[in-house]
Amino acid sequence: MLQPELVRLLTEGHALVKSCDEDCLTGNTLEPRQSEDEEGNPFNFTPQLIHLHKDHELFEDGDIHRHMYLQDLYISEAVDKPTLSVSEFACHISGCSAVFSTLEEYEHHYNSLHRHMCCSCRRSLPSARLLDIHIQEWHDSLFTILAQRQDMFQCLVEGCGQKFSTSTLRKDHLIKIHKYPPDFRFDKIKKNQRTQQMKKQQQRDTTMEVVDDVCESEGACEVMCDVLSHQPEQGESMETHVSEEEATCMAKSASTEGHADLSAAAHSTENPSSEALKPRYSYRVPTTVCFGHGSVRGFRGRRGRRK
Amino acid sequence: MWRLNKVRHKDGRQGDSVEELKLKRREHEKALRQARRDRQLVSKRLLLNDDEDQPEVTMDTISGEHDVVSLLHKLQQSGPERDAHLKALSKALRDPSAQLTFIKQENSMHLLVGLLTGSDATCRLHAVRCLHELSHSPITNVAPACLPATPYLLTYLSGQSTKFTELCLYTLGNLCPDSDAVKEKLLAQGIIPALANCIENQRPNLAVVEAVGFTLSQLLQAKDAAEKIVPMVLASSLPSHLLSVLTPDPKFGLAPAIECAWCLHYLTCSVKDNRVLLSHGALFQCSSLLVSLGGAVAEGNKEEGMELFICPLLRCLGNLLSSCPAKDLSAQMGDVRIVVALCALLQAYLQTQPALARESAWVLNNLTAHSSALCSALLTLNLVPGLIQLLPFSQGINTMILRVLANIAHKKKEFCVQLAHRGLLSALCATLKMADQEMVTLSMDVLFMLVVSGPQVSEEFVKQGGLSLLEAIQYNSEGEIRQRATHLLEQHLMS
Lengths: 307, 495
What we know:
The complex is a heterodimer of chains A (about 300) and B (about 500). Chain A is mostly helical and about 300 residues long.
């Protein structure tokens, strides 16, 4: 017996019919969907009766089987075992065309390349903490200013807590005390600190211009980068400002072509100062996390996009 | 009568290896698929002689052709050996080139029709056998040459000789698909009332009933059947007879039921309004049959050829449901075990015949679309986990199953909570990552319904890492998908 549970259900017959009828009256207990009251609700699923005509593609295999029988070609064992196919998984990030056959591969890809990625320079960091530190040290001019007066460079080893006045000193510490290799990937010394600041000044006027250290991806990412580079000038608290901007950006459907519109939108909301800003995320996430083009690196040549 | 248990290697000869046979079958299948795409899928049946096991064709074509000519010559002279000659002719006409030779001879068909309608009963039988062989010809010009015989063949349908009637029916069935002109003629000559009378009078004789079913199915497959043929059939007494034959006779086998089921399928898929069939209790018949078939399949008793019967039944049920008003559903159906049966069919055929599994899922969608009772049954009978396990399978299976689950969620918040408890949330976390856009959109719709059903569900979703998943989805290239993710995050998961 292949499916004993189902056999039992099928043979128990009328007892089942009764018990199900008691639970609910036929068909009329549909609750009005809450969605009807909400504004801008994009969800529009309704149950649908599907009628299939004679030549529908869903009927192809069954029709072939039928005609093989009519032509005396029927055999009960299938000649070739039909291939039952399993759905593939695909990375959601627009611009990333990676496709996977298992969920594990997907998760690994996403966690490695998209989760902790710096928008400004496309670097992928292995953890939230390292991403935080990276952004602070590389893309935050406030940090640079403060670092001139106090020890700001944190030790990368969690729990150590020590801080240093330069990145070189920190590096020495890492090598001497924590036995790190001298070429540790996630502690590159940043170049061109001064030119970066100048470029940021330029950027205020020309949001469309793509600068070296800003990621060159399209759409939402670019706008966010513009937004981020604006924040220190405005002198507002990092977190909430970004939240608000992000909210504006994401609320407009970010199309990959329309970044012109988006940056305009971002521009118009530059001075929100007095508004009460909701924290965007109820859990801790690097404020400058951004998912951009850079993720394609390392997964080039994968087959097919999301269809 | 069709013997299913013998493997008939129609294309093969003794020397062919297993691999060669496989190759031939595959090619044959490919040809059928192409024919279907061209809307030219047509088959003819050959009723073998009682002493035959396999369709044998004489390899010696030249002597066959000579035989035809000389036999015809002998037949033109009346004499006591006419029936022997006619029998020999019928054997010779198995060969396609002999068939061609026959129709090229002057007055050959006239002679044959004369013998068909003559006073010698044995000659009539052999004559109809000749016509049958001709009707089955693969050569295009041959079958239409039989047209002069059709009014007689139709008349004989009301006769009582069973073997003879069978041959008449299969001959007519083979002639039907040849051209529109042929169909027009047959309709004008009253083929539908003739078939109705035949099945009524010969109801106890299942071989004849099977033949009627076959012939009718040939008519109903016509491209324009919906306009002319279907209304005529629905107006006749055929629907009730077809339905009565659906319950298979255990001794005779599935064959007559198979033919009638396919006829019903062609009827239900042609029209949007199935009132006639519904009034005859078709919905009830089909669903109770599927319940017993589901039971047999779940027990592992797969009778040979069962899927040839299950397939048209599923289609009938599916299409009847789509034209049955929701309020009449419970009156017509009554038995919730149909959902159990469909789940049994899904599991049983998933690996061996995924197309049948897909059709079962489609029927389940139509059942659950507007019925709270059936949705509730799926939950209370604990059938949902089994459905969730089918969500990895593509090519239309998972999208249809997800629709079924969405139908359940759509009914009540309480159902949503139950669905979440049975593992739908974690399944959605996987389906939301699939490459298929339709799966992602449907998954978002279902997720929405679950999340708004109650705080425990949204909390559970967040616990399973749902927020970061939705945030990633906000970067999807499809605007509709991004919108949904944003809406869910902002309106329902953050506040």
